[in-house]
Amino acid sequence: MFGSGWLSQTNRALAAVVSCLLIAIAILLRVLYPQVLDELGHFSQSALQLVWPNDPPQQPVYTIHLTPIALQQMQEPVYQRLQLAQILQKIGSYNPKLILIDADLRKTDPTSPTLRSKTYDALQPNLRATYPNHDLLLQTAISHYPVILNRPLSRPATEQPPLSNYIRFSQAVGYQSDTQYTSGAKTLMYPLQLSQKNELYRSPALEAWTQLNGESFETTPTKHGYIAQGANRQVPLSADYEMMVFNARNAGDYVISAKDALHNQPTSTIWPPAPDSIYVIGTQARASTRHAQALQTLFTGNFLTLPHWSRYAEIAAIILFGVAVITITTIQGFWLSLTSTGLAVLTINAAAFHQFALKSIVLEPFYASLVVLLVFAISSSIRYVSFKSHRTETTERFAAILSPKQMQKVLARSDAPPLHGHQREITSLSTSLRNFHRYYESLAPEALAAFSNTFQTAHVDEVYLHDGTVNTLNSSGLNAYWNAPLDDPFHASHACRTAIEMQKQMKRFNLKDRFNFAQKNMKGHTVTLDIGISTSLATLGETGTRRHFKYAPLGKCVDLAESLSRHCKEAGHSLLICETTRGHLPELATLETIPVSTSRYQMRSFALLGDPSLAFSEEFLKLKNTHGSMVFALFEENDKKKALMLVDECKVLANGEYSNIYHAFEKYILRDLALHETVKDAAQ
Question: pTM of the predicted model, to two decimals?
Answer without folding.
Answer: 0.54
